[in-house]
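User: Can you help me understand a structure? I only have the sequence.
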Amino acid sequence: MKAQARHEHEFEAAHGLPEPLPAGERILWQGSPDWRALAVRALHVRTLAVYFALMLLWRVGTQLYDGAGAQAAALSVALLLPLSLLALGMLSLLAWLSSRTTVYTLTDKRLVMRIGIVLSVTFNLPLRMVESAALRPASGGTGDIALTLAAGERIAYLQLWPHARPWRVRRPEPMLRVVPDAERVGQLLAATAAALADGGATVQRAAPLRAAHETHGMPASPQGRLAA
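Assistant: Let's start by predicting it. Here is the structure, written out as tokens:
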């Protein structure tokens, strides 16, 4: 079963789902990114804030070094500060809108990702086509869960962004971004995929995902199921 992308407009059969689930399939979990964590981790708002602050301090320093008075130095900063705040505000708004319009849905058969701010797109990822997954914990109990798709399955990086594992452009990996209670969600995802691989047995306990602590990478298990 191939990954499917479906463009949405106004109608949804259920929250986050473009059509009703088949008989016998049930929703195990639904969630969305934490917008504050998304702004920091995906849009790098904190890093940019530090950069802008250093640039403004550098400008003040050069003004004073060149002999300009304190008033002139303050005026030069006052002209640039609103632009910096505007840029940070726009990125924060983008993170908030992305969080508001994103719904991740895990069923006992698939993972559905409804993403997109202006044009909503729904990706239907059957768990049987997920080769492996890895969890990257973050602060406050949030975390990223990256999925490695089976060979031959591919979704364009730009279609996924920011719901894609950073720097994996040639073989993009869908990512559940900064979901709350990420460890529990990851365990549920792993257990569901393992049960499905074992012939659809009922999920009785959650097997942990492999945790990754690299800054930009998350190791994926080479096994044909979610890392456990």
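Now, to help you interpret it: Residues 202-228 have pLDDT under 50 and may be disordered. The radius of gyration is 21 Å. Let me know which part you'd like to focus on.
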